[in-house]
From TrEMBL, chains A, B, C, D:
Name recorded for this polypeptide: Glutaminase
Annotated InterPro entries: Beta-lactam/transpept-like (IPR012338), Glutaminase (IPR015868), STAS_dom (IPR002645), STAS_dom_sf (IPR036513)
Family: Belongs to the glutaminase family.
EC primary class: hydrolase
Species whose genome carries this gene: Agrococcus jejuensis
Length: 421, 421, 421, 421
C-alpha cells in the first residue's frame, strides 16, 4: 500500500495553486528573480517520518524563519531571564521591519520582529549559530553567499535598527558585526523538508524526531512555540491564530512553518507574499491543513470516552468478598481522572477492596498519575485496600508489588488481574 | 473518599495568599472599597462538575470578563464576516482602555480592548445580552445597580471611545445608549463558580457542561478562545501566554478566567491588580495551576503509546490463511494513524486479509477516521480484504457488516474478532 | 483720487481665481453646499480703515478662526498660568481634529487644534463669548442656527474629544454643554470685513482699530499672535510660516485671517480647502500679499538710514564754545541707538556740551529711549552737559526744562535749537 | 563715554547667574566635564559692532547650532525645491534626537532635528562646510578633534538615523561618511562672539555685518530664520516663541543663538541644559533680553507718528496758486502710505499742484515706494501735477527732474522745496 499522506499533500498544493495573489520580495535581485510558481509542502512527524511534495528539492534562504530557532538557542545559552532582559515577548501588532521597542525599557517587543531577532543574534556567536541550526535541521546548512552579500549590501534598515539597539544599550556588540552575522543566519539554505523537521523538533519538545538529539530543553521549545503563537505572523498574528490556530513563522523567501505541539512540523514554500510579508499560498495551504486535520489549537475534539470503561462490584477473585473493580481506558489525564475521582467519592468508607484495572489504558499523563495515586492514597486512608492491575506498567513501577501512594499508604500493583491470590 | 481536587485548589490559594502586590481599582468607590483579601478559585469540568474554594460565594461585577462572551454572542447573531467588519482580531500590545483603532480601517484592533468591546456590545440588544449571559452562566445574572450607576457616572473615557467609534462609522447607535448598555453588561454579578462554568462552556466547544445547551456553535467557541489567546490579557498577552499558556480574560474587579479547550474552565478572584490591570494573585494562581497540571498549551505531553499495540501474522480464524492483524489502542488520531499508515505501507500487494482490531481504541478523531478509511480503501484497491473488529462501534457504523471505505471499495466490520467464519 | 488699495486687492483676487484645487468641507450639508466660487478679501489697518473686495458681503460661519479669539478671552479672564495649566502652546504637527494631548500632562498641545479649543471654550461662558467676540468684531455677531444644529448633530469627534478631556481632568464641565457652546462659537456669522478688523485688533496690540476699545491687553495679543505663528495652520504651520510668514488662522468655511503686528489684519474667503483644511485660494492670496508687500516677518527690510543724520562740532549758540551736535532722524530704536552710542564713545571726557537734536526723529521706541537717556547719563557723569532738542516732545517730557537721566544726572530739554541762551 | 551696552549685558548675566537648574550633557566625557559655571553673552549688530561679556573667550563646540547654517548653505547650493524634497519645514513637537520622519514621504520633518540635519549635511561636502562656516563666522573655524572623536565613537543614534535615511532613499551617501562629516560639523569650535556674528548674518538678510560679504542670499536667510522660528527649540518651540519671540537655535554644549531680523544676533553660553536640551541659563538670558528690549516679534510697538507730518494748502512758491503740500516723515511703509492714500483721496479732481515733501523721511520701504508712486500716478491721471521734494534722494531717482510714476504719467522731483520756480 502506498501511504495516502503524500497524495493528500499534493492535493492541498493543487487546491491552492490557483491562488496567484501577492508579490515577490523585491529588495534584492536574488529574491525578486525567484520563480513565483515554486510550490512545496513538507511534513515531519514526531516519530521521524518526513513527507515532502512539490518542489521539495528547491533550496531557498531561511530568512525570518530562522528567528524562532535562534531565539531557542539564545534561551538555552543564557536562560530565560537573561534573554527577557534583552527582548520581550509581547506582540507588536506591527510589520516585521518596525523597530517596535518597548517605550519604557527600550527592549524590542519580541524576537520575531527584526529588532528582536538582531538582538537575539547578538547573544550567539557564529559557531553557535552554525552548530545550533545544524542540530535543528539534522544536517549542516550552507550559507547562500550571493543572497548574503546582496542582503548585506542593502541592509540599511537592519543597520539602523542595530545602531539604535546599541544606542539603547540593548546590544553591546559592533552593529555591523551583528548585522553581518544576522544576515548570514538569514541566508542559510534550506528546503521544505529541513524546515518541517526543524519545526517538528520544536513541536516534539525539543527532541529531534530523526536524530533523537535533545536539541533544546523542553521549556525552551515551549517558550519558543508560545512566542510563535502570539508574534510569529507579525501584524497578521491574530488573523492567523483565529483562522489557522497553529504556532507558525514565515520568511520573506516564501517559506512558512507551523509547529503543532506533539503532532509534528509542517513547512510550505511559495514565494509570492501578501501585504504582511507572509507567503500568500503558504497561508492558504495552512488554512486548508488546519481545517482538514482539525489541528486548530482552539478546536475542541469531541469528548473522548470516559476513563472508566466499566465498573463492577463482584467477587472477582473468588475470595468471598466483593471487590469494586474499575476498568480504566484511554488516557489517564486531568479530565478523565477528575471524572473517576467523582466516582470514587461514592465509595463509602470501609475496608472494601478497590481494583483499578489499567489494562486498557494507553497513556498516563503526569497530572493524571498524580491524581490517581492521590485518589488511591485517600482510599487507603479511608480503610480500603487498593490494587492496580497494570499489565503494561503504565505507572512505571518497574516490578509489580506495592507502591507508596504518598506519605505512607501503599497500594498493590499486579501485572494481571487474575494473578491475585 | 473525598475528592482531592478541592484540597488541591485550597492549597493553591494558600500558596498564593502571601502575594500582596497590586492595587485595587480606584476609579469608582465600589471597586476601591472591595475587600482586598477576597480570594476564590473555581473549576468547572466538561462533564459539569464544579469545584469552588475560598470566597466562592462572593459576588462581584464581571467587568471585562464579559467581553469574550459578548463577542461570542455577536458572532452567533451576525456571523464572522460581519463582526470582522466592525472589530479586528489583532493584539494591540496596549492597555485595556486605549482606543487602538486600526489606522487604515478605523476598526478597533480587537474585541478585548474597550473600543472593541463597546463596538461588540452595539451589535447586541439588552435582551440578547441578558439571555446570552444567562445561557453561558446557566442562570440569570443580576446587574449591580450601584456599580452600574457609579461606573456610568465616570464613564468619560468610554463615552469618548463610543463617540469616536460613531465618528468613524464603526457604530451606528447612540453612543450614550451603547455605553449605558455596555456598562450594564460589565455590571453583571457573578461568582467564581459562574465564571468557571462560563469559561467551561467555551472550552467545551460551546456546550454548557451543566445544562447541556449548545450556547454558541463550535466555531464561535474556537474563534473566541483564539482571540482570548492573543488579546485577552492586554499588553501582558505575550507574558501570560508564555508563562501560563491558557486562553484567558481578566476583569477590573479582580476576576480572571482561563478556558482550556476540552479540559474545562477555571476562574479566580482577587481584587488587587497589577500594572496591566490583571489580578496579581489571579495571575499567580494560574501560573501555579498551569505548572502543576501541565496545562500550558505549548507543553508537549510525553509521547503516547503507539497506536499499534500489536501486529501479528497468523491464521487467527483457522481458515488456513494467515491474516495480518493489527491491534490498535488509544486514540486514532493524526499522529497515530500516520504511524500506522507507514506500517501498512509494508503490506505487499496481494490478496491477504488485513484485520484492524479496534477493541482497545478509546477514541477516534475525525482526521484519524478519515485516514483509517483511506488506508483501508488503498489496501482493498491493492487486492487485500480488510476487516475492522470494532466491538464498541468506534467507527460509528451502526450495524456490523460492510463499510464503504470511499468511492466503491468496501471493508468488513465485525463486533468481535472471533465471530468471523 | 481713488485709493489704489481696493484695486490692488481686486487684482490679487483675480490673479488667484484660476486656482480651483481643493474640496468643500463635506461633513455637514451647509458647508458642502457653499458656493465654491465665493472669493473675498478684506484689510483693516491699525488706524481703522477697512477695505473689502469681492464677495465682501457674504456672511459665513467663523469656525476655527474663532479659536485664537476665544484663547485671547480666556487669557484675559484666567491669566496666562491658569490657561497654560489647561492647554499648551506647542505645535502638534497634526491635523486640526487630532486629539494631540501632551503624553505627560494630558493637556491639549495647543489651543488651535480642536482639543485645545474645546478646552479653552470650557473656560468661558456663553455671555463672555458673545460679548468678547462682539468686542473683537465691533458689532454683535449672530449664530447661524442651521449650521450650529447641523454641526452639533455630527459632532461625534468633538464629543469624543470632550469626554476624553474630562476623563483626563482637563475640563470639568459637562462635555455636551462644552461641545454645544463650542459649536455655537464656531457658528458665529462673520464677513471678511469682520475678520479683518478682528485680526487687526490682535495686530494692534489688543486695541480695536475702529472702536478704540482695548479688547484684550497687550500681552494677550502678543501671546495669541505667537501661538497663531507656530500652531495656526495645523500640520502646514511650517510651510505657511516659511512661505507667507504671517501669524494666521484658517477655518473650515474657507476663511483665513492674517494678523501682522503693528500693520493690520487681513481676511480672505474661498471655500475650497486643501488637504490640511486650509482654504486653497486663501493660501494663494496670502502668499501673494506677503510677497508683494514684503510682509514676511522674517524678511529683513533694507537698512534704514543711520539714526545720526549729521554730526557737527561748531559754536552753534555763539557762546564761544564748540558744541558737539548730533542731528538724529528716523526711529530711536535699539539698532539706531547702538550705533549712536558707538559714536558717543568717541566723545572724550571733558566738559563739552553735547546737543542731541530730535527734530527729525519720528518715533522713539521704549528701548531706544532708555538707551538714549543712559547715554546721556554717562555723558553727564563724564563731565559733559547734555541738551536734547526735542521740538515734538518725542521724549514725552511734557515741558521743556531739565530731565533726570537716571539716578541724579540731568540733561536739558529744549523745544527749539536756537532758543538756547 | 563708555557704551552702556556691555554693562547692561553683564547685568543680564549676573541676574541669571543664580539659576543653577539643569544638567550637563553627559553622553561624552568632554561635555560632561565642561565647567558648568561658564557664562557668556555676545551681541553683533547689523553694522558690525560686536559686544561680548562673561566667558567670551571660551571656545566650545557649536553642536546643533550648526544646523541652521548648514541648512542655509544647502539652500544656496541646491535651491529651495531640491532641499524640500529631502527635508520638510514642519515642527515636530519632538526632542532633538527623534527620527521624526514624515509618514507619507519619509522626509525628516525639519532640518533642526538630527535626522534633518544629517540629511542637510549629506547635501554638502567637507570643503563647502568649512568654507561656508568660515564665511558665516568671518574666520576659519577649527574642529575640536577630541570632541569629534568622542562623539563619533558614541554616535550610535546618529548612525541609526543615517542608515534609516538611506533605507528610505533620503540620503544617498555612505551613512558612516555622512555621520562622520556631520560630527565634524558639530565639533567646530566657536565662542559666543562668533555665534553672535553668525546669527547677525542671518538677521542681516545674509550679509555679514563685519566682512560685508553676502554669505547667503536674502531668501535663504528668510527661509532659515522662519524654520528657526517654528523648529529651532525642538519640543519647546512654542514655549520659546511665546515667551521670547525670537528665531533661535540651541546646542548641547550650552550655546544658544537668537537672530532678530534687521536688528542683529545674540549668543549665550551656559552648559547646563533643561529637559528639552536647551541651556537653562541661556533661556533665562534671552527671556530677559526679549523683555527688556521689546524684541518679541509679536510685540507691537507703540504706533509711530503718522507719515504725514503736516499738510497745508498755501501758495508756497508764490505763483498765485495754492499748492497742497504734504510733509512726510519717518518711514514710507505700508501702514503710513495707506494712511496717506486715505488723505489723498480727499483731493478733488482738478489741476491743483500736489507737493509731497520727503525731507523728513528717513526710510522708504519697497512697498511704500510702490504705493507712493501709484498714488502719484492716480493724482496725475486725475489732472493734478505732482512734485516730490526729495533732498536726500530717498526715491533713488538719481538726478532731480521727472519720474515716470507708472505707464506714462510723470511727476517732478526736486531736491529742495524752494528751488522751484
Amino acid at each position: 500500500m502506498r501511504s495516502p499522506l503524500p497524495d493528500y499533500m499534493t492535493e492541498v498544493l493543487e487546491a491552492c495553486s490557483d491562488e496567484d495573489d501577492g508579490e515577490l520580495a523585491a529588495y534584492i535581485p536574488e529574491l525578486a528573480e525567484a520563480d513565483p510558481s515554486r510550490l512545496a509542502l513538507a511534513l515531519a512527524t514526531p516519530d521521524g517520518t518526513r513527507y515532502a511534495v512539490g518542489d521539495a528539492d528547491v533550496r531557498f534562504t531561511i530568512q525570518s524563519i530562522s528567528k524562532p530557532f535562534a531565539y531557542a538557542l539564545a534561551l538555552v545559552d543564557h536562560g530565560l531571564d537573561a534573554v527577557l532582559e534583552h527582548v520581550g515577548v509581547e506582540p507588536s501588532g506591527e510589520a516585521f521591519n518596525e523597530i517596535s521597542l518597548d517605550p519604557s525599557t527600550n527592549r524590542p517587543l519580541n524576537p520575531m520582529i527584526n529588532a528582536g531577532a538582531i538582538t537575539v543574534h547578538s547573544l550567539l556567536d557564529a559557531d553557535r549559530v552554525a552548530a545550533g541550526f545544524a542540530a535543528f535541521a539534522g544536517r549542516d546548512l550552507e550559507v547562500d553567499e550571493q543572497v548574503y552579500a546582496s542582503e548585506l549590501a542593502t541592509a540599511d534598515r537592519n543597520h539602523a535598527i542595530a545602531y539604535m539597539l546599541r544606542n539603547h544599550g540593548i546590544i553591546d556588540a559592533d552593529p555591523h558585526a551583528v548585522v553581518d552575522g544576522y544576515t548570514r543566519q538569514c541566508s542559510l539554505l534550506v528546503d521544505v523538508g529541513d524546515l518541517a523537521v526543524m519545526a517538528a523538533t520544536l513541536a516534539n519538545a525539543g527532541t529531534h524526531p530523526v536524530t533523537g538529539e535533545q536539541v533544546v530543553p523542553r521549556w525552551v521549545a515551549r517558550q519558543t512555540l508560545a512566542v510563535m503563537t502570539t508574534c510569529g505572523m507579525y501584524d497578521a498574528a491574530g488573523d492567523w491564530f483565529t483562522t489557522v490556530g497553529i504556532p507558525a513563522k514565515s520568511g520573506v523567501s516564501g517559506g512558512l512553518i507551523g509547529a503543532l505541539p506533539g503532532k509534528g512540523g509542517f513547512a510550505a514554500l511559495s514565494p509570492r507574499l501578501d501585504r504582511h510579508g507572509n507567503s500568500t499560498r503558504g497561508v492558504r495551504i495552512f488554512e486548508r491543513l488546519s481545517g482538514d486535520m482539525g489541528m486548530h489549537l482552539m478546536e475542541v475534539p469531541p469528548a473522548a470516552r470516559p476513563l472508566t470503561h466499566g465498573h463492577a462490584s463482584a467477587d472477582h477473585d473468588g475470595d468471598g468478598e466483593t471487590e469494586s473493580v474499575y476498568e480504566l481506558q484511554g488516557s489517564v489525564d486531568f479530565v478523565g481522572m477528575e471524572r473517576l475521582l467523582v466516582e470514587l467519592e461514592q465509595e463509602d468508607e470501609g475496608a472494601r477492596e478497590i481494583v483499578l484495572d489499567l489494562a486498557r489504558v494507553h497513556e498516563v499523563r503526569d497530572v493524571g498519575r498524580r491524581m490517581l495515586l492521590e485518589g488511591a492514597r485517600r482510599l487507603v486512608l479511608d480503610g480500603h485496600s487498593v490494587t492496580f492491575v497494570d499489565p503494561d506498567d503504565m505507572l512505571e513501577t518497574g516490578d509489580a508489588g506495592v507502591i507508596d501512594v504518598g506519605d505512607g499508604p501503599e497500594a498493590q500493583v499486579m501485572r494481571e488481574r487474575d494473578s491475585r491470590p
